[in-house]
């Protein structure tokens, strides 16, 4: 596993060095691919450096360098930034599950709320010329004050994850204004892929549909089918991140598809892909119902389209089909180009 770093003076001045926190996560793996394609020297921070490469990065093992670091520890962040000397930092690492944040609010606050501040401060001290991408979330809008949500929609977070992300977002503005750091913020709406963590709803659905299609299961138990979200493809979102750092000025950008779909829509699309009627397999389980926290979450991505020329390339139906297809390949014991499923 590579962790060697050449000094800034000895490396090719044209090769930009990018450091990704959360590189082992869903977005980190797609972003690493995007940045390698752009010719970046890609480095990533992982909590534990072991003999095994993280599953989502196995296909990139000879092309990226990994370093140990923990967001909970300010000195770890300082040591990492001063050693790697990045030109760009993509700050993706966080506790990303809303329910895990509800269960362990203090830990979530330490990582998702205060973690970004540790990154910004380490950059201020050790790499003030570097550009930072910060991954914010549509959960800052919580119960939205307006629909669709844009860069000017007021924050109204409704859960611990949203509150932590709102604080980090404000810290990004503070470091941008007070310390003149270039911090571009992506207000990311939901995005999924075959590499989404197994605990998330779309993975639960795609995994279960694939098992049913292969005759390995008979039912899919779900809670509320009416919740609506703006769901995009993670690979498209990763494409937006470097564009945000290539912009003339550090700004906020809503990244989403602009279309809201219900859980039922996703379930229908996934079953349609394998030629089955979802009504025959879905069991509504009241125990799985969560209190509704948010209103209609729907992005207004017009600024990203105008300023960054960014648009999603994968439709909602294509996303559901891609996820089911990858699960079927994996259940049959194979690997798809989209796999590395955790
Ligand atoms: P993910 O798959 O859950 O990945 C999270 C990453 O954070 C993992 O690499 C994880 O490392 C790392 N991490 C967690 N705690 C850490 C710590 N204490 N120190 C260092 N690393 C730590 O999340 P994702 O879907 O790629 O999301 C990327 C970013 O976008 C996150 O900031 C998320 O909040 C934001 N976002 C995502 C969505 C979405 O729909 N996916 C929507 C809005 C915003 P391990 O592998 O060691 O666990």
Q: Describe it for me?
A:
β5 (131-137), α6 and β6 form a beta-alpha-beta unit. The strands form four sheets. Strands 3-2-1-4-5-6-11 form a seven-stranded parallel sheet, sandwiched between helices. The protein has a two-stranded parallel sheet with strand order 7-10. The chain has a two-stranded parallel sheet with strand order 8-13. It is α/β, with parallel strands linked by helices and 342 residues long. It starts with 16 loop residues before the first strand and ends in an 11-residue tail after the last helix. The protein is globular. The model has no long low-confidence stretch (mean pLDDT 93). α2 packs across α5 (115-126), α7 crosses α11 (316-331) and α9 (263-273) crosses α11. It has helices at 26-37, 74-84, 98-103, 105-113, 115-126, 160-178, 201-213, 234-246, 263-273, 302-308, 316-331, and strands at residues 17-21, 41-46, 65-68, 88-91, 131-137, 182-188, 191-192, 220-222, 228-229, 232-233, 252-255, 261-262, 282-284. It contains eleven helices and 13 strands. It has a domain at 17-191 and 231-255: 3-Layer(aba) Sandwich (Rossmann fold), CATH 3.40.50. NADP nicotinamide-adenine-dinucleotide phosphate (NAP) binds at residues 22, 24-28, 47, 70-72, 92-96, 111, 135, 137, 188, 190-191, 197. Residues 140-159 are annotated as: Disordered. Residues 19-323 form the NAD(P)-binding domain. Keywords: Lyase.
